[in-house]
Amino acid sequence: MSYSDDVPQSSPTSSLAIVSLIAGILGLTMFPLVGSIVALITGSMAKKEIDRSGGALEGYGLAKAGIIMGWIGIALMFLGLCIAGFAIGIPICLAALGAASGEFGLLTPVLGLLV
After folding, report:
1. CA distance linking residue 12 with residue 15, whole number of Å
2. Which pTM does this prediction carry?
3. Helix, strand, coil proportions of the chain in percent (round to 5)?
4. 9 close to 41: Cβ distance less than 8 angstroms
5. Under the phi-then-psi rule, with left for phi > 0, alpha for psi from -120 to 50, and beta for the rest, what region is 105?
6. Residue pLDDT tens, the chain, 115 long
């Protein structure tokens, strides 16, 4: 009996699951939109591939982590867009209201940018 007979062989990990995990990490760090979308797509594909393999492939947890990070990345991006929209939209609306009433006050520099 040799040593290699005692070592249990593990199933290979799905490449799509690894790509999903890496894309999810990149979606939270360097490439917010693209990385998150790639993580969602490849994670779903990996889960289906693992289910169809009948136990020949592993990596279900990696695929699930990639999908979760993808959704978190999309949610953070949406939240950032909402905050940026409010940060830009509220001063413009206030400037427009001040201009309509004839009172400029502290909003004069903002109106100078709009005109």
Report:
1. 9
2. 0.75
3. 80, 0, 15
4. no
5. left
6. 555 566 677 889 999 999 999 999 999 999 989 999 999 999 999 999 999 998 899 999 999 999 999 999 999 999 999 999 989 888 888 777 766 666 655 555 555 555 5
Instruction: Note the pLDDT of residue 53.
Output: 92
Token readout for 109 is 């520099």
Place of tokens 């279900």: 60
For the stretch 10-27, what's the b/e string if a residue is b when 16 or more beta carbons lie within 10 angstroms of its beta carbon? eeebbebbbbbbbbbbbb
Tokens 């609306």 belong to: 93
Predicted confidence at residue 11, as pLDDT, reads 87
| Extents of the domains making up the chain | 3-114
Separation in Å, CA 77 to CA 22, 23, 26, 66? 18, 15, 13, 16
Token couple for 44:
């779903």
